[in-house]
């Protein structure tokens, strides 16, 4: 009995050390290797998820702490803080849900909530420690890139009036990006959760484990709350703009865009369901979707149709789908 316990402890320590080293290596790739670094950062929580599932929540926390300390020493303390606060909770949440056998929907929903909260806390912590806006570097990089491009076009003889108009358009778009930064944080939380959920599922399947899965894409149906969010956000954005209340306008714009993106997903789901119902080929439906995404008006129609589907359920009304 004692020997089995000691063997388990040794295995846990060994695997924890190996996976901690993997997280440090992924952080190094994320900081110093272009393009591949983005993938490494997105998958940074994965070793923690594996460790929690195989050995328990405590081992996952210990590995995250050890990896963060090593990253602080090897790279930079602020990088360690950002990774530990923004990404480690995602790995812990996914591992915890996998270990308890949660359904795919419950697991993904909980992990997304944890991820978004973690990234919000990480950004506030970075601002508190450095006094620098978390996205200031990226926004400044965009401005510098545009300035260089404008100089290049000017050297090629481009009309200065056109360059000035392009500059005004660019500054407007950059202002929109700044307004939508909260939505960027939510999107980041959604993206890294889904990537790690999918990859972790493949890893655990290779290890012979049963893993929770999400319903088929054509059966997805988002809650009616997105329709209410869409309407309330339009009202909030209008009142905020008309009465010069920046925070209300920003909240309204972020809610509007979030609801629109959700409606777009729902619209694609309904479109795919209709194509399958009428036995259209995959190639035909893909071509039609590409055409829709390339046309601004059709793009908006698809998003609004998706938002309305959360209320009216077209698949049940028109195709007899059972709920």
UniProtKB/TrEMBL annotation:
<feature type="transmembrane region" description="Helical">
    <location>
        <begin position="255"/>
        <end position="275"/>
    </location>
</feature>
<feature type="transmembrane region" description="Helical">
    <location>
        <begin position="110"/>
        <end position="132"/>
    </location>
</feature>
<feature type="transmembrane region" description="Helical">
    <location>
        <begin position="20"/>
        <end position="44"/>
    </location>
</feature>
<dbReference type="InterPro" id="IPR018710">
    <property type="entry name" value="DUF2232"/>
</dbReference>
<keyword id="KW-0472">Membrane</keyword>
<feature type="transmembrane region" description="Helical">
    <location>
        <begin position="287"/>
        <end position="308"/>
    </location>
</feature>
<feature type="transmembrane region" description="Helical">
    <location>
        <begin position="179"/>
        <end position="204"/>
    </location>
</feature>
<feature type="transmembrane region" description="Helical">
    <location>
        <begin position="81"/>
        <end position="98"/>
    </location>
</feature>
<feature type="transmembrane region" description="Helical">
    <location>
        <begin position="225"/>
        <end position="243"/>
    </location>
</feature>
<feature type="transmembrane region" description="Helical">
    <location>
        <begin position="56"/>
        <end position="75"/>
    </location>
</feature>
<dbReference type="Pfam" id="PF09991">
    <property type="entry name" value="DUF2232"/>
</dbReference>
<keyword id="KW-0812">Transmembrane</keyword>
<keyword id="KW-1133">Transmembrane helix</keyword>
<protein>
    <submittedName>
        <fullName>Uncharacterized conserved protein YybS, DUF2232 family</fullName>
    </submittedName>
</protein>
């Amino acid at each position: 009995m004692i020997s089995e316990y000691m063997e388990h402890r040794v295995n846990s320590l060994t695997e924890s050390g190996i996976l901690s080293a993997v997280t440090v290596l992924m952080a190094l790739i994320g900081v110093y290797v272009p393009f591949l670094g983005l993938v490494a950062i997105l998958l940074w929580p994965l070793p923690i998820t594996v460790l929690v599932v195989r050995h328990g929540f405590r081992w996952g926390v210990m590995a995250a702490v050890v990896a963060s300390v090593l990253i602080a020493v090897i790279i930079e303390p602020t990088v360690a803080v950002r990774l530990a606060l923004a990404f480690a909770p995602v790995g812990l949440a996914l591992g915890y849900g996998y270990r308890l056998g949660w359904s795919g929907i419950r697991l993904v929903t909980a992990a997304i909530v944890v991820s978004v909260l973690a990234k919000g806390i990480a950004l506030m912590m970075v601002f508190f420690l450095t006094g620098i806006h978390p996205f200031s570097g990226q926004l400044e990089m965009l401005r510098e890139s545009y300035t260089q491009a404008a100089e290049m076009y000017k050297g090629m003889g481009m009309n200065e009036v056109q360059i000035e108009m392009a500059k005004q358009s660019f500054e407007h778009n950059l202002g929109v990006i700044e307004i939508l930064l909260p939505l960027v944080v939510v999107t980041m939380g959604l993206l890294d959760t889904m990537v790690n959920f999918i990859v972790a599922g493949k890893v655990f399947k290779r290890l012979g484990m049963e893993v929770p899965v999400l319903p088929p894409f054509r059966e997805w149906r988002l809650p009616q709350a997105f329709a209410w969010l869409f309407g309330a956000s339009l009202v909030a954005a209008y009142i905020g703009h008309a009465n010069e209340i920046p925070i209300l306008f920003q909240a309204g714009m972020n809610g509007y865009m979030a609801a629109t993106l959700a409606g777009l997903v729902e619209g694609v789901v309904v479109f795919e369901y209709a194509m399958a119902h009428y036995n259209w080929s995959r190639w035909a439906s893909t071509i039609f979707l590409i055409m829709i995404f390339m046309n601004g008006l059709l793009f908006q129609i698809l998003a609004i149709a998706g938002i309305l589907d959360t209320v009216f359920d077209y698949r049940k009304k028109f195709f007899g789908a059972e709920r």
